[in-house]
Amino acid sequence: MTRLRVVAAQELRDLWLTGRGLPLILAYAVLLSVTSYLVASNRALNFLEQREAVGLTLQVGVGVAALLVLVVAADAISGERERGTLESLLLTPAPRWVLLAGKGLAAMSLWLVAYVVSVPYVWYLARGTGVLGRALVAGLGVGTLIVLFLCSLGLAISTVTGSNRVALSVSFFLLLAAFFPTQLPTAAQSGGVADVLLRVDPVTAGLHYLSELVVRGRPAGEDLGWLVGPIVLAVAAAAAACTVGARMSLRPGRRA
Amino acid sequence: MPPAIACTGLSKSYGPRQAVQPLELEVEPGTLLGFLGPNGAGKTSVIRILTTILTPDAGAFTVAGVPHDRPAEIRRRVGVLPESAGYAEGQTGEQVLTFFARLYGQSGTQASATARELLDLVGLAERARTLVAGYSRGMRQRLGIARALVNRPEVVFLDEPTLGLDPAGQRQVLQVIGGIARQRGSTVVLSTHLLAEVEEVCDRVVILNAGRVVADGGIDEVARVAAAPRQGRVRLPADSVAAGLRVLSASPEVARIARSEARDEIVVELREGLTPAEAGPRILRALLDADLPVLAVELDRGRLSDAFLTLTADT
Amino acid sequence: MSRPARAVLAGLAVTVVTVAPARAETPGALQPVEISQDTTTTRADIGAQFTFTTTVRNAGDQPLSGLVAHLNIVSLHADVTVDPEDWSTHRTQYLAAVPPHASTRLSWSVHAVNDGRFVVYVAVTTAAADTLTAGPALHAVVSPQRHLDAGGVLPVAVAVPAVVLVLLIAVRRRRRRMI
Question: Could you tell me if A83 lies within 8 Å of chain B, comparing CB atoms?
Answer without folding.
Answer: yes
